[in-house]
Every structure is written in C-alpha cells, then in structure tokens.
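Worked example 2:
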Amino acid sequence: MKTDIEIAQRHRMKPIDDLAKKARIPLRSLEHYGRYKAKISFDFITKASARPQGKLILVTAITPTKAGEGKTTTTIGVGDALTLLHKKSMICLREPSMGPVFGIKGGAAGGGYSQVVPMEDINLHFTGDFHAITSANNLVSAILDNHIFSGNTLNIDPQRVVWKRAMDMNDRALRQIEVARGPKNGTPRPDGFQITVASEIMAILCLSKDLEDLKQRVARCIVAYTFDDRPVTLGELGVVGAVAVLLKDAIKPNLVQSLDGTPVLIHGGPFANIALGANSVVATDLALHLSDYVVTEAGFGADLGAEKFFDITCREAGFAPQFVVVVATIRALKMHGGVAKEALKEPDCEALMQGVDNLAKHLENVQQFGVPYAVAINRFPTDSPQEIQTLLDWCEQHNHPAYLSDVYRKGGKGALSLAEHIVTTLKHASPISLQPLYPMHWTPKQKIEHIATHLYGAKDVEYSMIAEEDLARIEHLGYNAAYVCMAKTPNSLSDNEKLYGRPRDFTLHVKEVRLSAGANFVIPLTGSILTMPGLNKQPSALQIDIDTQGAIKGLF
C-alpha cells in the first residue's frame, strides 16, 4: 500500500485561487505562498464577520495509545464527506509542530486518502507561523536579559524570571540551562526552553480576534518578578510593538485543501497536553461565516483538548460546537484492555470489552457539556468482523450512536453514513447553549479539583508545596477568575501515563501552577508532564530524506 506521502505527492492539487473561489474568498484578499497555499487578509476577515454563522462540529477521541486513533484523519474525512453530500463545508486544523514530526509522529496532516495538502509544506515550515512565534517569544527573552544587563530600572530579580525561551523541536537537553555565563555577558541565571507550541505567545495568537486584541494580551504577559515581589509585564519592557510586528502575518489564517477538494484553514498549533489544543479563534470564526458546516478537532482525548475547547476557547470566542464526534479504534481499545501492541493483529473481543470502559468515560465527559455526539469507529485492516460487531453492539446497548469510519482507505466516502447522521441531527436540533464545566468565579483550586474529579475520575488532588505557593501568589495578584489549562499526560485519564483503561480512585498530583496572564489562564503541571518533549531512541528524523529531484521520503 502507498505511504501517506506517496498518496499526497501523486495527488493533483487545485490552484489555491480555485479553493478561494469555492470558499467565497475574493482573490484580492489572498496573500499567496506559492500555487497551493495562501494567507487571508484581515480586511476580508472583518467583512466576512457580518455573514450568518454555520454549524461547528468538534472531533475528539478516546485516550490515545501507540496503536493510533486517527483523529485528524477522521476530522478531514468528515469534512470531505459533508462536501460529497453537497454541503458547503470547511475544515479547521492546527499546524503541526516540527518537534513531533521529527520525533515520534512523522507527518501530522491526516493519513491515507484523508489528508490535507501540500502535506510536506504543512508538516515543515509551511508559511513561517511557528518561526514568527518562536522569534517573538525569544525576542522577549533577549530584551529581558538586556534590560537586566543595562541597568535593570524595573528592579527585576534575575532569579525570578519566569519567561522561558522557545524552539519548535524536541530537545530535552534545553529543559534546564544557565544563561549569561562568562565575563561581560550579563547576570548568570537559570533558564530553560519549552517547545514553541507551549509558548504563551502561541496561546495568545490562537485566542486573539485581531492584531489589536493580540497586542493587549501580549502586554499583560508576566515575564518576571522584582526583588520586592511585584510582577513585571511584557508591556513594561516596551517590546509589545516589536512582538506584534513579528506576528503581523502569523495571525492571518492559512488556506489549503484536502485531497477531496474541501477548503481547509490551518492556523496555530498549541499542544493539548500542555496548552489549548485547538486551532485559532480567527480561523474557526472565519470558517463559520464562510460555510454551513465547519469540522475542527481538539488535541488528544476528550479529557484534554475537548475540555479546553469548551471551557476556554469557546468562551473566549463566543461560539460552541453543535455536534461532537468521538473517535475510537478497536486496536486502541484492546490496548486499554491489556493487549500489547505486538499482539493487536489477533482478534480479542474479551480485551476489547475490557478496554471499552475508556470510551465509556470519554462519552460521559462529552455528555457533561450537553452536546449531541456520535462514535466514529476508525477502521483498521486488522479489525475482525466479530470485533467490529461487538463494539457496535456495545454502543447500541448503551444508546451511543456509532458509525464505522473508513476514511483512511476511502477518503470522504468512508464517512458518508456518519456525515448523514450529523446533518440529520443538526437539521432537527435546537441551537446548543454552551455548558462549561466550571463557572469563572470559582478559585483555581476549585476549578482544578472539579476537572480532576468530574472529568478524569480522580478521588482527590494533592498539591506540592511549590504548587500551594503558586496558587497563593495567583490569588494575591487577583487572577482567581482565570481559566484553568491543565497540563497532564495524554496517555491516561490519570496523571500516570502507565494507567490505561479507566483508572478509578486515583490522586491527581499538581507539582507546579504557572500563570499565563496574557492568555488569562493558569497551567497546573501534573504528574511528570514536561513542556519540552524529548526524542525517542529512534526518532522519525532518522527515516526522513530528500532525493535529487526534490521528493521527500519518510514523512509518513
């Protein structure tokens, strides 16, 4: 069978102007990046906001495993299926981070015949958005250290700088470093890098409605504390304008296409285990004003990306999904039932039924938000007919609408039944009112504990001494009403990545709580979560190459 990149490379793409016409975007509002990708200017985005809004469909999933779930592949397939049903549809996705592309995932633009193209560009430098965000983040670090070196009129304590440097690569050696070593280089202090997708600049870009909104959020970012314990903001450093200049193009959504010719907006890329886990508000809102159906995804399982989408992104943006698709695979459910990856090809209905408890919990989580939903069973060639029927029977017995999805092999045709169900449901459903998990007036502790007990299934939450001090400082600074953006392993409902299935009666451990004042959320770091991933022993980069004709290989 052809690899993902071979399928993408052999596909004849439509010129980006044709996609723009299909999406009702005037050509004068395109900023071309070659023949097959373009940015959309804000003059048109502002005008489009007067049009009626379409319906938003959110794709989430069970707890991911090494067996693979195919959430992005399903998102693209559902969008393409709606197009095949002659519906005016668009897809909104995050931009892939190069760290995981060269680390463990390979490509991250869908798979098989359910991809967005040009997939090589999308997975690599694309239109330079990540470079701009990285540069803006590190400009702040450079200005901050230069301020301390040049007299430190803001009275910054070098040992209490909280702004981290960033890069879009998995590099564990940079998690903890010391800067300004040696003579005439400034004041030595501890520092560290986080991956670009965890940068507050990334979160701000994805939450901002326009450049002015972005500048106001950037100005509020806390970069350090003074010797007398006063927070120092990015605005006080006087670098807001320069940051905005670096992001002037990055804030514009990127237009590309799926293999089936559906217009796709790809913009922003925060991880869901340590950040928001959704594409930009600008892109999603624009798509809603350009089409009748918009399909988007939230990273990892419903305990992470979907919760943050409902509780943070939707409240900031003012829109809400009218339908949720929960992706599950028989392979992953068998792993949650105790089967090793090497044995997944063998039929095992007993293990499947043991692992289905993970799906049950995620469906309970989605139900808490009061949105109609369906299960998409992402089909793999190794799934036996008996296993498929067993899972369909379980869903029917528990009143969960479920549809077999075969978009990897068939593209949009593989999700037509699911798409028809979505259209029928939304045709007869009343508009959904947003039902967040927590009210904003609760304290961060109340929000953390409610998420842990009601969404993850924990019995209680334990805080380190550092976390207690962080929460006290956040309360003292007046940020009690901020959102909570949990940082937790995506590989378990708990904070222990080795606990598969549906863990019960566990304790969630909060080791630190960071404040992102510009994004208006606090980040509780739980378990052993890190904001700079590392590479595995055999990273994907070792398999990626380019030949003399310019054809890239190994980018799965």
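The chain has three domains: 4-127+250-428, 129-246, 444-526. DSSP finds 20 helices and 25 strands in the chain.
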